[in-house]
Amino acid sequence: MNNEIWLHLLDSAHCMDSLSAVIMETQDLAYPLLRRVTMHTMADDIFKQANVVIVLDNAIPKVDQCPEEYIKMVTSECAKYGALINQNADKDVKVVVAGSSYVNLKALIIASNAPSINQHNIVALPTQLEFEAKALIAKKLNTQSAAVKDVIVWGNINGINHLDLRDAKIYQYESSVWGPPTFSRPLLNMIYDRKWLKNNLVQEWRERREHRSGMSAAHCIAKVLSWWHKDSDTGEIVSLGVMSE
Predict the structure, then answer these.
(1) What is the pLDDT of residues 99-144, one digit of tens each?
(2) At CB < 8 A and 24+ separation, what contacts does 58-65 make?
(3) How far apart are CA 11 and CA 84, in angstroms?
(4) Contact 133, 157 (CB under 8 A)
(5) Which interval of the chain is the signal sequence (predicted)?
(6) Side-chain half-sphere exposure of 86, counting CA atoms within 13 A
(7) What are the domain boundaries of the chain?
(8) What is the CATH number of domain 127-210?
(9) CATH H-level superfamily of 5-126+213-230
(10) What's the pLDDT at 152?
């Protein structure tokens, strides 16, 4: 993909100083395909002809705010996003919803308010959870994270979820059996510490997300967009929150 990018940054009016700093950093990258960066507040013409929309956490719950109030606020904001995406964006737009709060809900509300957009083009992103699990497993097996594939995350991205390793595989693992780069083995057959697998893995996985930085989140978004635009046909399983049929 060698198309030039026009990056539009959207936030509330009191965050414009922060967005200005982001624009300067983006320009400092000297990225050859970055044509222009602009910042916006909510207006009727946002998402105009957008090909990709990335929705991040748009509000942080206040200390004294009850969950019901926060959900109501999030629902209202995402309903506006969905309606404006439906009105202004390219009809093949790809919408990626990421963040650390109510990601599934946000994707659902946006999709519900954008009926003319392909519902499978609006996805909630659990890729960071998936990569965090791969990193833990790779550490346990003393290998690199990229060698662990086909880990699946089910459920609510920011709530109750399930880590599924039944189809997971490991590649280029140093042991008595060795093969070419395409050779893999079932992951569960290679983890001999069943106690760790049963009792510790999920706990460590849930604790790991408490130490996140923006770097891994940005990488996950970029990775999913890369797969999406390049029509990846590697056969690797990727977890995404998508509207069911």
Answers:
(1) 888 899 999 999 999 999 999 999 999 988 999 999 999 999 999 9
(2) 58/11, 60/101, 61/101
(3) 15
(4) no
(5) none
(6) 15
(7) 5-126+213-230, 127-210
(8) 3.90.110.10
(9) NAD(P)-binding Rossmann-like Domain (3.40.50.720)
(10) 95
